[in-house]
Design goal:
The complex is a heterodimer of chains A (596) and B (163). Chain A has 596 residues and is of the alpha/beta class. Chain A contains 23 helices and 20 strands. Chain A has a six-stranded parallel sheet with strand order 3-2-4-5-7-6, sandwiched between helices. In chain A, helix 4 packs across helix 19. Helices cover 28% and strands 40% of the residues of chain B. Chain B has two domains: 78 residues, ACT domain (Alpha-Beta Plaits, 2-Layer Sandwich); 71 residues, 2-Layer Sandwich (Alpha-Beta Plaits). The chains are: A alpha/beta (596), B alpha+beta (163). The structure holds flavin-adenine dinucleotide, thiamine diphosphate and magnesium ion. The site of thiamine diphosphate has 20 residues of chain A, from helix 18 and helix 21.
Chain lengths: 596, 163
């Protein structure tokens, strides 16, 4: 244990040091491996999450000799990419992962696809077999560029040591500009042994890639005019607002207008959840009031959100109401993809919203929408996030409510995928962006724990909690070991319902309770499991113990605590917009009066 | 509706598979696809013939523009354009077919480029529909083999696709 603690201190020391250690200044004839390191230093990378293997041995040797960044050794390459991804979500910086060829590379693919679906900027460096061996079915060869093509923003195979620096420069540039996304750089082993002079380009010029930043001023003026004329306006923001760090401008705009705001699952924290203008998350498991407002508004301002099928329900039903849609998005292909848009504005959320605020500042008259607010407040009473409390069995929603209280709403909350994810999204009130870290687009079970690692590295003093299910946590459970090695004081909040709950819910609703393979036998004793890694384990079975246990766990500031909450087995997530149904056709809990 | 999309892209390994992969991954039709380097060897010019509703074509153009290797995209159907395809057809040329094939070839302004004991190979260029019409016009049972290049397209007059 002592060693573990010492290690964490070392990491802390590393994270505290403001100035990077003096970089090696020799630029003449260095190896490809050293060039890789130097590029990462030039990009001011703080952490590289990775796992070694034959094809990247030269690079690992160069890592051994450098001090510019800290390498974090995970227990599975998928977790390396997830951790890098969460580091990026939490900080806004580009996440970096390093894996070997073949199985190392394919293990990384789920992580890459997860980041791709949520537009997260990553650079993933994979080893490749030596250039002459490519295409020979060499040991641990896989066509990484081919395998990842559909799930990256771009990828490169570097075939000459002289191209390493310019390729990595481009990779970072492409990953973080425009609509962000993961970029893979595949580097054959022999290239990392060859030598070249190190020249890091200052800028990137690409005739084929120039993302638009500023929105069209005419369109922006038109949008403001439409907003001011609205009778039933609605602001709908998504992951793009968080990714583009536009929350401050959005708050300014929404407050000036006094219009209701809803966030997508990816957009939570983009607008403060405790604010009175906030109507909650929308979509399949959105609040009654958010979905009703979205469906019935007459002018909709969509900001960095992509009208996902889990957000608008049945597109035909959504389109059956006439409304004017203004859509701000940096990616033209997100606009008018699923829903026809009236006023498209291609640009970066920050600059477009700032321009809208400037125009609004000149505006004297206020648009009075008190009738619309009266209606929304009526809708607020219909479900209002109620669930049936119990004195004998722990309700999952209750755990999240208490988690919010105990952490004072200021923790990084990561989640896995399933019912627990929805409850975390519904009951933890996120007031800041980049605090809610989850997989929305791909819905990847297993992200929770590595995501928590990424967050803890991003902010060593922060409270980090991983809300998970007993199914999901077992998909990357091996990372308990990584957490021990680096002494990460993460708190795991396991909502243990002994079911693949989200699957079971669908089977209850749509397959007449035929619970086909959604129950798992032989769960481990999570307390003992945690303890075996040197962590603290707790099991909580009584509702009355929930708050005390959470306080006790979060008081252990330098300990990893695994909290196994034995919860209600068959609790369902409500409201729910069933597949094919319209947004306003939500299913509400039966006890609360059935269908809306 | 049928659209001819022209694009310029970096002449790099894998660029073609990015375009082909995009079409298959998103379920877009490809009727034909042709590609070759331009007078500037760093650029390739591609012509894709596809079909789809206006919404689908709009998405195709946006998605193509999104590919990092793609420099410029043009929907030739947005203006006046010329389309040409080359076809080689090997047909039976014995007995009654001998004169018949020669005659059809002349009508369609094709050329016989190879003559064997029992067959002709006819070369024909024109719009895709002209080539279709030729195939329709001759006796199906006489066709031994066909090869088509897929269409190449270019804008008329001042419509120029260049970097
Ligand atoms: C079990 C489960 C249930 C779910 N239920 C729901 C639900 O009830 N409600 C819900 O909302 N989601 C739900 N989801 C998530 C859903 O699948 C989508 O991932 C999510 O809705 C997409 O969020 P988004 O529209 O904000 O888009 P994102 O995927 O976050 O996309 C961001 C958009 O912003 C753009 N953008 C990026 N950067 C910028 C910038 N700087 N400037 C301008 N634009 C930018 C991008 O081009 C993109 O169009 C669920 C997922 C799971 C796994
Ligand atoms: C890798 C992966 N496999 C399968 C699924 C399908 N899936 C979605 S939710 C879910 C159940 C999750 O169970 P658990 O982690 O216990 O969470 P709960 O829903 O019970 O809260 C499954 C299997 C998925 N999202 N990801
Ligand atoms: Mg479960």
């Amino acid at each position: 244990m002592f060693r573990v603690h010492q290690f964490y201190c070392e990491i802390q020391g590393f994270m505290d040091s403001k100035a990077h250690p003096p970089a090696d200044t020799n630029t003449k004839s260095i190896t490809g491996a050293d060039i890789v390191i130097r590029c990462l230093n030039e990009e001011k990378v703080k952490f590289v999450f990775g796992y070694p293997g034959g094809a990247v041995l030269h690079i690992y040797d160069a890592i051994y000799k450098q001090k510019g960044f800290k390498h974090i050794l995970v227990r599975h390459e998928q977790a390396a990419v997830h951790a890098a991804d969460a580091f990026s979500r939490a900080t806004g910086e580009v996440g970096v992962a390093l894996v070997t060829s073949g199985p190392g590379a394919t293990n990384a693919v789920t992580g890459i696809a997860t980041a791709y679906m949520d537009s997260i900027p990553l650079v993933v460096i994979s080893g490749q077999v030596p250039v002459p061996a490519i295409g020979m079915d060499a040991f641990q060869e896989v066509d990484m560029v081919g395998v990842t093509r559909p799930c990256v923003k771009h990828n490169f195979l570097v075939k000459d040591v002289k191209d390493i620096a310019s390729t990595i420069k481009k990779a970072f540039y492409i990953a973080k500009t425009g609509r962000p996304g993961p970029v893979v750089v595949d580097i054959p082993k022999d290239i990392t042994a060859h030598v070249a002079d190190f020249i890091y380009p200052k800028t990137v010029e690409m005739r084929s890639y120039s993302p638009v930043l500023k929105g069209h001023s005419g369109q922006i003026k038109k949008a403001v005019k439409l907003l001011l004329e609205a009778k039933r306006p609605m602001i709908y923001t998504g992951g793009g607002l968080v990714l583009g760090d536009g929350a401050a401008e959005l708050i300014k705009l929404a407050r000036a207008l006094n219009y209701p705001v809803t966030n997508t699952l990816m957009g939570l924290g983009g607008y403060p959840a405790t604010d009175k203008q906030y109507v909650g998350m929308l979509g399949m498991h959105g609040t009654y009031e958010a979905n009703m407002s979205m469906q019935n508004c007459d002018v909709l301002l969509a900001v960095g959100a992509r009208f996902d099928d889990r957000v608008i329900g049945n597109p035909k039903h959504f389109g059956s109401v006439k409304r004017t849609i203004i859509h701000i998005d940096v990616d033209p292909s997100s606009i008018s993809k699923r829903v026809k848009v009236d006023v498209p504005i291609v640009g970066h959320v920050q600059s477009v919203l700032a321009e809208m605020n400037e125009i609004l500042a000149q505006e004297k008259t206020k648009n009075d929408i008190s009738d619309w607010w009266t209606q929304i407040n009526e809708w607020r009473k219909v479900h209002g996030g109620r669930y049936e409390q119990s004195s004998v069995v722990i309700k999952p929603q209750y755990v999240i409510e208490k988690l919010w209280e105990v952490t004072k709403g200021d923790a990084y909350i990561t989640s896995d995928v399933g019912q627990h994810q929805m409850w975390a999204a519904q009951y933890y009130k996120f007031d800041k962006p980049r605090r809610w870290i989850n997989s929305g687009g791909l819905g990847t079970m297993g992200v929770g724990l590595p995501y928590a690692m990424g967050c803890q590295f991003a902010d060593k003093n922060a409270q980090v909690a991983c809300v998970t299910g007993e199914g999901s946590i077992q998909m990357n459970i091996q990372e308990l070991s990584t957490c021990a090695q680096y002494g990460l004081p993460i708190k795991v909040i396991l909502l243990n319902n002994r079911y693949l709950g989200m699957v079971r819910q669908w089977q209850e609703f749509f397959y007449e309770d035929r619970y086909s393979e959604s129950y798992m036998d032989s769960l481990p004793d999570f307390v003992k499991l945690a303890e075996s890694y040197g962590h603290v384990g707790m099991q909580i079975t009584q509702p009355g113990d929930v708050e005390g246990a959470l306080k006790e766990a979060f008081a252990k500031k330098d300990k990893f605590v695994f909290m196994d909450f034995i919860t209600e087995q068959k609790e369902n997530v409500f409201p729910m917009v069933e597949n094919g149904k319209g947004l306003s056709e939500m299913e509400l809990p039966k006890t609360k009066g059935g269908k809306a | 509706m049928k659209h001819i999309i022209s694009l310029l892209m970096e002449n790099e390994a894998g660029a073609l598979s990015r375009v082909a992969g995009l079409f298959s991954a998103r379920g877009y039709n490809i009727e034909s696809l042709t590609v070759a380097a331009t007078e500037d060897p760093t650029l390739s010019r591609m012509t894709i013939v596809t079909t789809g509703s206006d919404d689908v074509i709009e998405q195709i153009i946006k998605q193509l523009n999104k590919l990092i290797d793609v420099v410029k995209v043009l929907d030739l159907n947005d203006g006046k354009h010329i389309e040409r395809e080359l076809m080689l057809v090997k047909v039976k040329a014995s007995g009654v077919y001998k004169d018949e094939m020669k005659r059809m070839c002349d009508i369609f302004r094709g050329r016989i480029i190879d003559v064997a004991d029992n067959s002709y190979t006819i070369e024909l260029t024109g719009s895709c529909s002209k080539l279709d019409a030729f195939i329709e016009a001759i006796d199906k049972t006489a066709i031994l083999e066909t090869v088509r290049t897929g269409a190449s397209g270019i804008g008329r007059g001042d419509r120029i696709l260049k970097v």
